[in-house]
């Protein structure tokens, strides 16, 4: 497979946004490859038997809290003939029964019984026909899974991001699920994940209106291409345009409001803005379509007032039509339409020396994405011209 990847470090060929063959290779090399993907937070499965369905790239997965309390991830596909086992997004149950021939599994994935088993071949063993487990590890309550046996251990893979994951998730990740919003963007997953700090005060009207920029901030990219942006925000002025200004205020006004964005390679995000804590789980559905599940959380120690405040801010600030993210969806689509013109997407802000990639940047630079693009290019096996 040939992709015309320019020699210049700040240019990315737009053909990678719409080529089907590129998408197929991404599913094999990246999504089924040695990457960890966040698929849930433990609080989404509080009780034994609780489950959630997700996808890792093209592969349907089922995350289950077993009757022993352990959270596991399985392929959501029956080991008999492959029927998808669970179809609802969340639920609870002591057994997982396949509807097709009624094989039944317990919450640890073990096969409990199969109708007609006495007529199966002599060598058939229940022990060999349990659900296919995927490697699963957690960090601050975030459940990660990988489809590859070659993936690094999670702690090494995440590099310096865990402190920021904790900061984004209430300090310690002890959360309660408030709810979800799910949206499908007409864009390629890389156009979705190419979002950066340069655009924030320029695209988003709310950033200007609320004077949210200007504080101290950092941006760095880890060895495995995870990008962290952490910035102090100004207190929003009460300029009278909202009937309820608490929508844009920090609950504890004595603290400094902050924004933390942990953009995990390849596509999902863990974010905090003011009092909103959210994970955006993203699924590449096709070369032209990216589905994002926005999960919003409160903290177990919240007062009822603070929990209500978080609920009010959640989707209103960081949802698909929130004050801070409303315009992104439109741009994701416009990037995708514009990509078909061919040529290259060109990064400029913060690039500096065109001969070296920078892994530490200012919060409003776009050059951090080039480190991710280089990581992507190597994983995909595309040579520069
Ligand atoms: S496919 Fe699941 S029991 Fe047959
Ligand atoms: Fe944005």
What does this structure look like?
This protein is of the alpha+beta class. The protein has 2 domains: 37-155, Rieske Iron-sulfur Protein, CATH 2.102.10.10; 161-380, Naphthalene 1,2-dioxygenase Alpha Subunit, Chain A, domain 1. The protein is 21% helix and 29% strand. It contains 9 helices and 20 strands. The strands form 4 sheets. It has an 8-stranded antiparallel β-sheet with strand order 12-18-17-16-15-14-13-20, with helices on both faces. Strands 2-11-10-5-4-3-6 form a 7-stranded antiparallel β-sheet, with no helix packed on it. Bound molecules: FE2/S2 (inorganic) cluster and fe (ii) ion.
Tell the overall outline. Answer: globular
Helix content: 10-25%
Taken as a percent bin, the fraction of beta residues is 25-35%
CATH topology title of the largest domain: Naphthalene 1,2-dioxygenase Alpha Subunit, Chain A, domain 1
Which molecules other than protein and nucleic acid are bound? FE2/S2 (inorganic) cluster, fe (ii) ion
Which class do the helix and strand fractions yield?
alpha+beta
State the distance separating the first and last CA atoms: 14 Å
């Amino acid at each position: 497979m040939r992709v015309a990847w320019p020699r210049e470090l700040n240019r990315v060929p737009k053909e990678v946004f719409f080529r089907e063959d590129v998408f197929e290779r991404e599913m094999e090399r990246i999504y089924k490859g040695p990457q960890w993907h966040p698929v849930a937070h433990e609080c989404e499965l509080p009780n034994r038997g609780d489950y959630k369905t997700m996808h890792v790239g093209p592969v349907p997965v089922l995350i289950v809290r077993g009757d022993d309390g352990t959270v596991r991830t399985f392929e959501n596909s029956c080991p008999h003939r492959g029927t998808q086992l669970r179809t609802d997004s969340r639920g609870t149950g002591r057994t997982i029964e396949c509807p097709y021939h009624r094989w039944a599994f317990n919450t640890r994935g073990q096969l409990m019984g199969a109708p007609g088993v006495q007529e199966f071949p002599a060598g058939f063993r229940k022990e060999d026909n349990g659900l296919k487990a995927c490697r699963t590890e957690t960090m601050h309550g975030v459940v990660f899974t990988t489809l590859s046996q070659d993936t690094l251990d999670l702690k090494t893979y995440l590099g310096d991001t865990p402190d920021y994951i904790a900061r984004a998730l209430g300090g310690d990740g002890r959360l309660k699920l408030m709810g979800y919003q799910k949206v499908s963007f007409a864009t390629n997953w890389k156009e979705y994940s190419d979002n950066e700090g340069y655009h924030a005060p320029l695209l988003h009207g709310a950033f200007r209106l609320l004077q949210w920029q200007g504080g101290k901030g950092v941006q760095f990219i880890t060895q495995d291409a995870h990008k962290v942006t952490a910035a102090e925000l100004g207190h929003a002025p009460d300029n009278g345009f909202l009937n309820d200004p608490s929508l844009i205020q920090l609950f504890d006004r004595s603290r400094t409001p902050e924004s933390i964005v942990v953009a995990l390679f390849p596509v999902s995000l863990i974010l905090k803005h003011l009092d909103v804590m959210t994970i955006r789980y993203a699924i590449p559905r096709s070369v032209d379509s990216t589905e994002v599940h926005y999960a919003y959380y409160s903290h177990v120690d919240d007062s009822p007032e603070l929990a209500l405040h978080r609920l009010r801010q959640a989707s209103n600030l960081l949802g698909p039509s929130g004050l801070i993210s409303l315009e992104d969806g439109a741009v994701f689509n416009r990037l995708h339409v514009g990509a078909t013109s061919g040529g290259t997407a060109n990064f400029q802000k913060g690039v500096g020396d065109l001969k070296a990639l920078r892994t530490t940047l200012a919060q409003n630079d776009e050059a951090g994405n080039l480190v991710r693009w280089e990581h992507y290019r190597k994983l995909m096996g595309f040579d520069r011209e």
